[in-house]
Amino acid sequence: MSVLIKKWDVLGVGELVVQFVCEGNFNTWNDSQILKMYQSGSVANICANLQWLGNTTLLISTVGNDKLGKFIVQELDDRGLCSEFVKMSKTSATSIIITKNRDISSDLIAYRFADTEIKGVKDKLIEDSSIVHTSAFALSKDPARTSILNALEKAYKMGKDISVDWNYIPSLWKGEDSQKVFNKVVDLKPLLNITLKDAKLFAGKKIEIEGLKIFLSSFKTTLTSLLCDNGVWFCTEDNAEWKFIPVAKAKTVIDDDRLEDIYWAGFLSAYLKGNSIENCVIEGLALMTKKMQTPSTLYA
């Protein structure tokens, strides 16, 4: 799909991968025999959900020049998401993740190839965007990490909002200093989203919500959103006191995968409309509840 607009609400820079999901009930990886293929990647998913919500989004990513890469680019095009700046690598294959369900958790197998090859983000694209968004997944490997950090720093100097989903998975950071990268990110005062599960993994020790709130409060962000099963704890640069907003209970839970992507897309969509942080959280949670009662992606 060609670029037909000059301004974007959100510029997403990060992962676009193929996800193979094990079908059926099983106890070990050896028991699973059926895999189903999906387009995936948190940054791509959030852009797709934002587009569905009526926002203009642009995704910068890299896939392989192979059948899997063509499959996920076609998936983006089918959903009306601009793929003009999704590059196809001539040397690396499309990245693949394998999971036991649609939720990308710490229990996954990852084959990282083209997604790590994001090389440079044009200044004009940053200038023409209101928010620049990325993720911990995308920041876990170079050269993508350096390119993304440079883009975030430029966005910060231009006065743009920065959004980061810290979807931390320890196995993706082997041999890498995740704390150092996180420090660089929070120095740019982003809108930061992290799930309770990922926050515990990142803290690296057994710690409950109160301890996590103290830990996260040491980083001065514009917003820190801690997404839990029953709602969201959040604090802001202007109000360091944590506040909790519960999520409405779904009448019937049909699908509870990738809820953090849904929540954050709803939050950012409300933020772009000038809502208060509290109302943004409420809108994100409402969208998350809707997703629980929907048997597929909202933008399908």
Radius of gyration based on Cα positions:
18 Å
User: Proportion of β residues?
Assistant: 15-25%
CATH architecture, by name, is: 3-Layer(aba) Sandwich
Point out poorly predicted stretches: 1-5
Keywords:
single chain; 300 residues; alpha/beta; UDP-N-acetylmuramoyl-L-alanine:D-glutamate ligase; nine-stranded mixed beta sheet; four-stranded mixed beta sheet
Description:
There is one protein chain. The two termini are 17 Å apart. The protein is of the alpha/beta class and 300 residues long. Strands 5-4-1-8-9-10-11-12-13 form a nine-stranded mixed β-sheet, with helices on both faces. A four-stranded mixed β-sheet has the order 3-2-6-7. The protein has helices at 42-52, 67-78, 123-127, 136-139, 144-157, 178-186, 196-203, 209-217, 259-272, 277-292, and strands at residues 8-13, 17-22, 35-40, 57-64, 86-89, 96-99, 108-111, 129-135, 161-165, 191-195, 223-228, 231-236, 243-246. β6 (96-99) and β7 (108-111) form a beta hairpin. It has a single domain, classed as Ribokinase (UDP-N-acetylmuramoyl-L-alanine:D-glutamate ligase), CATH 3.40.1190.
